[in-house]
Structure formats: C-alpha cells, structure tokens
Design a protein that fits this description.
By secondary structure, the chain is mainly α. The protein is built from ten helices and no strands. Residues 33-52 bind DNA.
C-alpha cells in the first residue's frame, strides 16, 4: 500500500514539475498562479497543497536535487579536474533542468554551496602554495576562482550549452590551476 502511494506522490510531483517547466518557458515564476499550474498539470489544488505551498517550492525542491547530484559527483573523486568535468557533464546531461535552475532560479546559490563543499574537500593549503607573499591573497584568489567558475557555468547554461562539457570543464580547470600557482 505504501509503495503505491509513493508512486502516486512521485507521479503527481512529476506532473507539477513538468507543468512548471512548460509555464516557465513563457512566464516568470512570480506570474504563475497555483490555479494555472494545477490546470496545466491536470492536478487538483488539494494535490498541489499536499506537497507544496507555492510554485517556488517546486523550484527549490529541484535545486536541492541538483545540489545532491553535484554533491554525489564530489564524493566520486579526489581530483579537482575530474570533479569539474563530472559536474559539467551532469549539468549538460539534463539541459532542461539546468536551464530552469540557472535561468529561473538561483543556480548560483547551488554552485556556491557546491564550491564550499569543494573547498572543504580540496583544502586551500593543498591547492595553493602558501608563502608569506601569497598568504594575504589566498582568500581573494579563492573567491575570484569561485565567482569566476559560477559565471562561466551560468553563461554556458544560458548560451544553451554551445560548448561541450569537456571544453567548459577544461577552461575552468585551467583557470583554477593558474590561480593555484600564484
């Protein structure tokens, strides 16, 4: 009985997510009403309220899923270049989800959270030669690398993945590695 209920919940959430994706192609999130979302998904309002309070909750749930997938990538490798490549491939493999998260939501928030995890996974001391000359700049260099990586990924997603994941990953890796050699 519980398994059947779980499948219904998954199906309802899938319908609502797909309807939200369709509506976001023509509208901003703030312009989408619950009534319109439910009508597009062919789901009644009670079903919507059983899982969410507002349409933004669907997007937040999606962002959390993306964060979890990217976190799993981080746990797969202890090589920075490989983590960057796997992350880019993950985003490229689900283009629609990536576009929604990075153009309609706050994808930079997900990337910031992931990059904080990356920072913990790859300590700065292991990445950058700490000398008396570089020590004051380490935090700034890391911040620059983080914000720059986010900008490159957002631009890539917003430009409809014009470059392959491997090229974007190579570019980010190159820039990060150059920063590490300050």
């Amino acid at each position: 009985m519980e398994l059947r209920k779980d499948r219904r919940v998954q199906y309802t959430k899938k319908l609502l997510r797909e309807a939200l994706f369709d509506l976001l192609k023509d509208k901003e999130l703030s312009q989408i009403s619950i009534t319109e979302l439910c009508k597009t998904a062919d789901v009644n309002r009670n079903s919507f309220y059983r899982h969410y309070n507002i349409p933004m909750d669907i997007l937040l749930e999606l962002e959390e899923e993306v964060f979890e997938k990217l976190s799993a990538v981080l746990r797969q490798s202890y090589k920075m270049d490989e983590v960057i490549l796997l992350s880019c491939k993950l985003l490229e493999n689900d283009k629609e989800m990536s576009k929604i998260v990075f153009t309609k939501g706050d994808g930079s928030g997900i990337l910031s959270r992931i990059l904080t995890s990356v920072r913990n996974h790859f300590p700065v001391e292991d990445q950058i030669e700490l000398t008396p000359e570089t020590k004051p700049f380490v935090e700034m260099a890391y911040e620059f690398g983080e914000k720059g990586s986010i900008a490159v990924i957002k631009n890539w997603v917003e430009s409809d993945f014009v470059l392959p994941a491997e090229s974007v990953a190579q570019m980010i890796s190159y820039l990060v590695n150059k920063l590490n050699k300050l």
